[in-house]
Amino acid sequence: MRASIPAAWSLGGLLLLVVGNATANDIEGEIASINDDDSAFTVQGIEFFTDDDTDYNDGLNRFEDLAVGQRVEVDFEYRDERHFATEIELED
C-alpha cells in the first residue's frame, strides 16, 4: 500500500527544503577571536568563515584587516552547516 501526499504539501515541503538550505542574515558585534588558518572569526559566539566572495567595506579590504575588538556588521548565509560571511563592515 502506498501513501498519497497532497500536491500542496509536496510543493510546500520542497519550498521549505530549498529555503532551509541557505538563509541570509546579519549580526552586529565585537570580534572576539580570529582563526587565520580557516579565514574565520567569531562575533557573539558564532564562527563566521570567509571566502573569495566575501565583500569588505568601510575601511576593510581583506580578511587580514580584521582585528579582535573591532565592532562589525556581518551579513552572512548559513549553508553546509556553517556561517559564511558575505559582507563585513566596520561599525562606529
Reading the helices and strands in chain order gives HEEEEEE
The appropriate CATH architecture is: Beta Barrel
Beta-strand content estimate:
over 45%
What is the overall silhouette? globular
Under CATH, the homologous superfamily reads Copper binding periplasmic protein CusF
Cα separation of the termini: 63 Å
Helix segment tally: 1
InterPro entries: DUF5666 (IPR043724)
Keywords: Signal
Domain DUF5666: 28-89
Pfam families: DUF5666
Secondary-structure map:
Elements: H1 7-21, E1 23-35, E2 40-43, E3 46-49, E4 55-57, E5 71-79, E6 82-90
Parallel strand pairs: 3-6, 4-6
Antiparallel strand pairs: 1-2, 1-5, 2-3, 5-6
Notes on the structure:
InterPro entries: DUF5666. The protein has 92 residues and is an alpha/beta fold. It is 16% helix and 46% strand. A five-stranded mixed β-barrel has the order 1-2-3-6-5.
In short:
This protein has one helix at 7-21, and strands at residues 23-35, 40-43, 46-49, 55-57, 71-79, 82-90. With 92 residues, it is an alpha/beta fold. 12% of the residues are buried.
Q: Which short descriptors sum up this protein?
A:
single chain; 92 residues; alpha/beta; OB fold (Dihydrolipoamide Acetyltransferase, E2P); five-stranded mixed barrel; 1 helix; 16% helix; globular
